Amino acid sequence: MGRGISHRDLVMYSLDINGGKHSVDVPPDMPLLWVLRDVIGLMGTKFGCGIAQCGACTVHLDGQPVRSCVLAVSAVAGRAITTVEGIGATPSGKKVQQAWLDVDVVQCGYCQSGQIMSAAALLAHTPNPTDRDIDAAMSGNICRCGTYVRIRAAIKQAATGNAEVLQTLAADAT
Amino acid sequence: MSSKAQRPLDLERRRLTAGGLSLAFLWLGSGKANAFISARRQDGDAAAALADGNPPFAPNAFIRIEPEGPVRLVMPNVEMGQGIYTGACAMLAEELDVGMDQIVVEHAPPNEALYGIPLLGGQVTGGSTSTRSHWGVLREAGAVARSMLVAAAAARWSVDPSGCSVKRGVVTHDKTGRKLTYGALAKAAGALPIPAKVALKEPAAFTLIGKPLRRVDSPAKVAGITEFGIDVKVPGMKIATVKACPTHGGTLRSVDDQRARALPGVIDVLKIDNAVAVVGEHFWAAKRGLEALDIVWDPGVNADLTTAKLTQALAERSQNGPVIPGRKVGSKPADGRTVEALYQLPMLAHAPMEPLNTTVQVSADRCEIWVGTQVPVRCVSAAAQVTGLPESQIILHNHYIGGGFGRRLDHDSVEQAVRFAKQVPYPVKIIWTREEDIRHDIVRPMYYDRISAVLGSDGRPVWYGDHITSGTVLARWMPAAMGKDGMDDDIIECAAETPYAIPNLDVNWVRHDMPAGLELGWWRGVGPTHNLFVIESFMDELAHAAGKDPIDYRRVLLAKDSRALGVLELAARKIGWGSGALPPRVGRGVALGSPFGSHVCLIVEAEVTPQGEVRLRRAVAAIDCGIAINPSSVEAQVQGGLLFGLSAALYSAITLKDGAFEQSNFHDYRNLRMNEVPQVEVYRVDSPEAPGGLGEVGTAIAAPALCNAIFAATGVRLRSLPVDKHHLIADGAALKSVTADAPPPVDREHTRVPV
Question: Helix axis angle, A112-125 relative to A91-103, nearest 10°?
Answer without folding.
Answer: 130
